[in-house]
Structure prediction request, 304 residues.
Amino acid sequence: MPAGRGKVCEACYWEGVLRKRITLNQAGLGACLAEHFESFSQWLAATRGTFRAANLINRYLAFFQEMDRLWGRLVDYKTLLGHFHADGLRRFRLATQWMEAQGHIVIDDKLREADSEYERIKLIAARVSSQLPNDELWFSYRDKLEARLAAGKITLRTMRLTLSASADLLLGRTGKDPDSTLSQVRLDAYLTEKPGQRANITGFVNHVNATAGMSLSIQMSSRDARRSRRRRLERSLIAMMNTPGSGSAFLRKWARAAMPYFHDCRLERRAVLVEKDDGLVIYMGDLAYWIPLPPSPGSPGRCA
Prediction:
């Protein structure tokens, strides 16, 4: 027996505290929710221990009081989510875990994620509305995306990411020209600082051009240009592999596409091409380059 406890041990003391708090809190609930509050308290003590349950139980009274005020009973997960939203239910996580464990609700992860996305979009809209109360560009674009979402053409997450990037651009969140109006200068500055937002911002820029009669343009970055060029060369090589040819003309055509793809340099007009084993050696000046040979007609192909 710890000193100072008299005739009550540590475990009995906290059991007494928990019982007093349960009884006091039940007085503020209707009969149905009071019974469920008792069940939740016992589950909390069994899963988290009496000490922790006694210190947590008062925090969950507000959750049961709100259900008592609105419905007078336990309700399904969709109804809870519609009122408390994902952030609110997160604050009462143990209560929803108890409801799920007892079979009162079935937690739907997709519904929860959708609710979180909608709440984030509301926050973005509030930010735009507070700083640009008379601007219609962002809100008309939001309406356009909502129509596409309803038609199943985009996902809710795509909508949120696009609206977030559009709001940042519209509000000048790059820090370089916070007082300027939407312009090509601002767009270029935004994409210089956040090149990864290029895809998210394209639709909004097109909407601005069509709605406000502007002529903003998204310049392709040097990295994107290199990727686009490499994909184009790769398609050319695959096309030639699928329809193989023969002769010096075909080999030179192959080399023109293969040299920039494999070695990032152009095939010179005076380059000398020599077949060696399964490769093609290209002599340009004092340098020699090797590229794989294309498949020959009727063969399974020599390119790895």
Remarks:
- The chain has three domains: 10-107, 123-212, 223-292.
